[in-house]
Every structure is written in C-alpha cells, then in structure tokens.
Amino acid sequence: MLDPKHLYWLSEIVDLGSFSHAAQKLNVTQPTLSRAVQVIESQVGSRVLERERYGVRPIGIGIRLSEAGRNIAAFRVDAENAVDLWRGGLHREVRIGVGPMLAASFMGGFFSCMLKERTKYAMRVVSATASWLIDQLNEGNLEIVLAPEQINHFQDDLVQHKIFEDQLAIFAGPGNSIGKSREIVEPSELQGQEWIAIGALSGIFGSSKEIFANIGLKGVTAKISFTGDILMAAEILQRTNTLCIMPQKLGQLSPILKNTHLVRVSMELPRRDIVIWCRRNDQFRPEIQYFHNRLQSYLAAEIPDFP
Predict the structure, then answer these.
(1) N or C, which end of the chain has less CB nearby within 10 Å?
(2) What is the pLDDT of residues 100-156, one digit of tens each?
(3) For 221-232, b where at least 16 C-beta lie within 10 A, e where not — what string?
(4) Contact by Cβ (8 Å): 233, 101
C-alpha cells in the first residue's frame, strides 16, 4: 500500500521542482526523500520523476500520484484548521463566495458586524465571477454563494433564497454631464457615448450586446470589458466620460462608486435580483440558516428602503 506521507512528499518535490528545496521545506534529508521516491517507484513498477537540467518533473503515473499528494496535503491543512477552530471555541468554518459587485458594496460592512458578534462559526470568503463561484458550489468547495439570480449555469442541485430585488442601470462618472440635467435620457443621446462593461464573462444571462440592443443602441461596443473586478471599472468611471451598465442598488451602495450618477432611460433594463445560493441538501443546515438570517437582519438595519 502506498504511504500517504510519501505521496505528500512527492507532491512537494514536484511543486518545488527539486529534492533540495523539498527537503528544506519538509525538514528532512535529501536521501530520505530519494528513498521515499524509490519506494513509490518499486510499488507502482514505474518511474515517477524525471531529472532535468534545472530540477525534476513528474512523468507517467507520477503526475497522478503527485496530484493525490496535493489532496493529502489539503486534507492535512483542513484537519489542522479544524483543530484550531475547536481550540478557539468555533464549531466550524463556513466557506462563502461573493460576487465582485457585492464585494464592492455592502459585504465589507456586513462582515465587519459579524466580527463584533460572538459567532459560533469562522468564515472563509472568496470573491470571483458568479459562474466560477457556482462551479465551486457544485463541486462542494463552497457552501454559500451570494450572486445574481440570473445565472446561465448548471444548477439542478442548487436552491436560491432571495435577498433583495435589483435591476441593471446606466452609471456615469462625475465628468460626464449626461443625465444630470434631465430626468429621462433618450437612446439617441447614448449612441455616441463610450462604454465599458463589467461581468463580461460572469455567466449571467444577458450579454452587454443584448442589453445595448434592448436600450435601442446600434453598433455600440464596450471598449474595455472587465471580469471578476469592479475596482478598475470604478476608477475609469471617475477619470473618463465613459458609461457603464451595472446593478442599480449595488452600484448606489458601493463606496467606490459614490461620485457616479444614474443615467435614467425610458425603457426598463433586465433584472439582477440578488440571492443566496446553496446546495439543496444543505439549505437547512444551522450555519447556512444563521448566515442567511444575519444577512437579512443587517440589510434591514443598515440599508435604506430595504428590501
């Protein structure tokens, strides 16, 4: 039977690219690592590493075995974290995914409030595109995802709990006067404007091109599209005369967009309701119920006109 420790060592040798670096990190001797690799090769009946000019690389079954070693390392870290949480009086860690627009709006304030509470749970928070977060939720790497309801992605085993309703809106920076002097802007006035886009590859129904067509704009293209980030788009809005389409409430709640203004148009733009996603079998787990209830309470107390 393969020794899990040997597989772990093999993964470190592969990831660091040399026996010497791995030995230094693992606090063992190079001969010890060499013997461990020889044992693995004897057990599987094949070489697992190939020496090159600048180090070593996995070959054949060594590729699969080094991946198994990484999984062993990850389980070891999880076990050590579980012990640390238990010693700190916490029940477990909740893994939470947050979309970029949510991360740039009220979620920092929410997690600040959670820090002040004597919560029973630690939290690990990841911010990324909605589609990537849903993939991670499906694969069991996350337990909660906060993202738009309208996700163009596999979700058969997932359920949603609506947090609040929102819809797309057009935002302009302080240097762009369009929409400042009038309540409603006609589509013809938007035709010659420069645009940037966010969430270009986020897996949300409704591409920028479809939304432009919905407004009545022809031949309009976003000159720069951002995926997984809102900070750069916010800075561009502050510095240039560009326009950007993003969720209205989230945009208005975001501190980094405080100097921007809405450009109101006569037609209604698509919805972008915000929901909590979780796996169907997990929706009644106490930590997920706790997170949901605390988020609802925070929004009701801190956000004007919520929901």
Answers:
(1) N
(2) 999 999 999 999 988 888 778 888 899 998 888 998 999 889 999 998 887 665 567
(3) ebeebbbbbbee
(4) no
**What is each CA distance from 288 to 108, 168, 172, 305, in whole angstroms?**
19, 28, 37, 25
Q: What gap in Å lies between CA 261 and CA 258, rounded to an integer?
A: 8
pLDDT of residue 35: 92
226 DSSP β-pair partners? 198
- For the chain, the domains span 4-86, 92-162+276-302, 168-263
How many residues appear in the chain? Answer: 307
SS3 10: helix
CA 78 to mean position of chain CA atoms: 20
- CATH class of residue range 92-162+276-302: alpha beta
> What is the side-by-side strand order in the sheet with 243-247?
224-226, 195-198, 243-247, 168-172, 261-263
130 closest CA partner among 106, 111, 148? 148
- The three-state secondary structure class of 129 is coil
Q: Do the domains 92-162+276-302 and 4-86 match in fold?
A: no
Q: Can you tell me the distance from the alpha carbon of 6 to that of 40, in angstroms, rounded to the nearest whole number? A: 7
Residue from 215, 223, 225 nearest 189 by CA? 215
Candidates 1.10.3720.10, 1.10.3210.10, 1.10.10.10, 2.60.120.460; correct CATH number of 4-86? 1.10.10.10
